[in-house]
């Protein structure tokens, strides 16, 4: 059974959409070394080791999301987008939305100097929090829970990646081709949906003038539509333009 957490952390956990099995992981993630140095008896450890692990976990999940959302983006652009999303500034902004600064355990000096608003401390605290969620849930769920949390926080930012780094996505390219060749629009139809809320899978078909040209699967409707559009592009670019199905 999940252990209770301090009242001050309730809103943070509500915004994250996660409940800790062992609240000690949450406490450790929120403990800065300045606080541990001043309170060695009550807080003998701090969150720097968790920051190290959280950085790697975040990189992995963001990389997976980018590859799924932008299947045609070259490696160099993927790296640039990941660097943008996991930068200190970007992580600090996510931390502020969560209200993480109000929950950090800081020493008197850090508190007096406004440590709860420092981008570096917020970013490090967020990474530590990601590691804590992973360690708390991995025995029962592996990467599922931490992936769900990170996806919820970063999905919109990934979908809205800047134009220069993101080549034309498949849906845009397909619509342009269909307008040119058929003087028509593209229609996407949900074929199948399965799985629990935290691990949904979608299958989508893409149609042009009531003919199906491709299907795609993904963990979101957008991802499935992108995959379907890619199939349709391949089908329509064949000399005889035979439909995929």
Describe what this molecule looks like in 3D.
The chain has 245 residues and is mainly alpha-helical. It has two domains: 7-159, Ribonuclease III domain (Ribonuclease iii, N-terminal Endonuclease Domain, Chain A, Orthogonal Bundle), CATH 1.10.1520; 170-236, Double Stranded RNA Binding Domain (2-Layer Sandwich), CATH 3.30.160. The chain is 56% helix and 10% strand. The protein is elongated, with a radius of gyration of 22 Å.
Quick structural overview:
It contains 11 helices and 3 strands; from the N terminus they run H-H-H-H-H-H-H-H-H-H-E-E-E-H. It has helices at 10-16, 23-29, 33-38, 48-69, 75-85, 88-98, 108-112, 119-141, 144-159, 170-182, 221-236, and strands spanning 186-194, 201-208, 211-218.
Which characteristics define this entry?
2 domains; 10% strand; mainly alpha; 56% helix; Ribonuclease iii, N-terminal Endonuclease Domain, Chain A; Double Stranded RNA Binding Domain; three-stranded antiparallel β-sheet; elongated
Q: How would you name the CATH homologous superfamily of the largest domain?
A: Ribonuclease III domain
Label the CATH architecture of the largest domain. Answer: Orthogonal Bundle
Low-confidence stretches: 1-5, 163-167, 239-245
Order of helices and strands: HHHHHHHHHHEEEH
Radius of gyration: 22 Å
Count of alpha and pi helical runs:
11
């Amino acid at each position: 059974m999940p252990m209770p957490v301090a009242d001050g952390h309730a809103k943070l956990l509500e915004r994250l959409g996660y409940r800790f099995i062992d609240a000690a992981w949450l406490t450790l993630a929120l403990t800065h070394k300045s606080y541990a140095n001043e309170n060695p008896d009550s807080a003998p450890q701090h969150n720097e080791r968790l920051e190290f692990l959280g950085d790697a976990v975040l990189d992995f999940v963001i990389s997976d999301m980018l590859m799924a959302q932008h299947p045609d983006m070259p490696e160099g652009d993927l790296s640039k987008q990941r660097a943008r999303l996991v930068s200190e500034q970007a992580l600090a902004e996510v931390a502020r939305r969560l209200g993480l600064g109000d929950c950090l355990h800081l020493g008197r000096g850090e508190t007096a100097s406004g440590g709860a608003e420092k981008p570096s401390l917020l970013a490090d605290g967020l990474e530590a929090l990601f590691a804590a969620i992973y360690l708390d849930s991995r025995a029962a769920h592996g990467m599922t829970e931490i992936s769900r949390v990170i996806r919820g926080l970063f999905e919109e930012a990934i979908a809205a990646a800047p134009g220069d780094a993101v080549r034309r996505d498949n849906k845009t390219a397909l619509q342009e081709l269909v307008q040119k060749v058929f003087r028509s629009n593209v229609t996407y139809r949900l074929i199948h949906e399965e799985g629990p809320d935290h691990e949904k899978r979608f299958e989508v078909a893409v149609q042009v003038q009531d003919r199906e040209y491709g299907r795609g699967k993904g963990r979101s409707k957008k991802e499935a539509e992108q995959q379907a559009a890619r199939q349709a592009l391949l089908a329509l670019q064949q000399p005889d333009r035979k439909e995929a199905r």
